[in-house]
Every structure is written in structure tokens, then in C-alpha cells.
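Posting for a labmate who doesn't have an account.
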Amino acid sequence: MAAAAELTLLEKSLGLSKGNKYSAQGERQIPVLQTNNGPSLTGLTTIATHLVKQANKEYLLGSTAEEKAIVQQWLEYRVTRVDGQSTKEDLRTLLKDLNSYLEDKVYLTGHNFTLADILLYYGLHRFIVDLTVQEKEKYLNVSRWFCHIQHYPGIRQHLSSVVFIKNRLYTNSH
């Protein structure tokens, strides 16, 4: 999904009805937002953070200094690691690392839903939708997190719903 489309989804999920126009710049199609009363803003996370503040939903950026840093860390991860995926092997490594990280967490920052969850969900959707049942089971923590985020009010919107089987098909025992 193009970053501009993600930003439009984010606007709607935040309850903003501005209908901002986004353009893309360069080979990597970096999103650009021309603001009404100032310079244009460039980059997915910069624009997304601006939209959150515009919607007066700053809690999505984290409530403590540590949580804010974790949100920034995951926003950077989204742009540097997820958007740069080129091979199936890269994706497997990313999902394995994310699966380990989410082992004891409901959300990326721990117990609070943030912008990091929204943007990582949007970034991973195109990959998760193509996983087999067995692959989803292999990355159980990612699957649990993803399923939880897609059912969060207003987040999924027109994106296809990804189905997860509640009972494991296979166990580790023989």
C-alpha cells in the first residue's frame, strides 16, 4: 500500500475529515503533505505524527518519556525495516524478530495502543494477508497482535480482513 493511502486511512481513523492531498517524491515515493499555513511536510512518520497532533490524540505518541521513545523506535523500524522488504527471507527474519518481541506484549509499547501499532499494522498488512495458515501459526505472537489491531475500532477500514484460526492445527509433539 502506498504511504499516501496509509496516511488517508490514518486521517480517517483519527476522525480527521480534512481530506489532505498527498504527493510522492523520489524513487522511493516518499509522501509529502502541503500544509495550509506553512512548509510542506515530508516522510510517513513526520506526517503521521503531525496528523495525530492535529487530531488532539497525542496519547497515541506515548504517555511517558520511555513510551514516546519506544513509539519513535517502532516508527523508524517501520520505515527502515518493513518498507525495505525485498525478499521472502527478509520477511521471515522480520517476522521472527517481531514475534519474539511481542511474546509478552499486547501492543508494541507494552500495554498501550499507539501510532506505532497503527503504522506497523498498515505496513505489514500486505505481507500478513499472503501468509499461509502454517506461517501464521509459526509467528503466533505476530498473528495475535495483528488480529487484535485489525479489530481495533476504525483501523482496518477498507483493508481486507485477515483470518486467523483460533485453534492450532499442529502441535510441537509428534
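Reply:
Got it, the C-alpha cells are right above this. The chain has one domain: 3-151.
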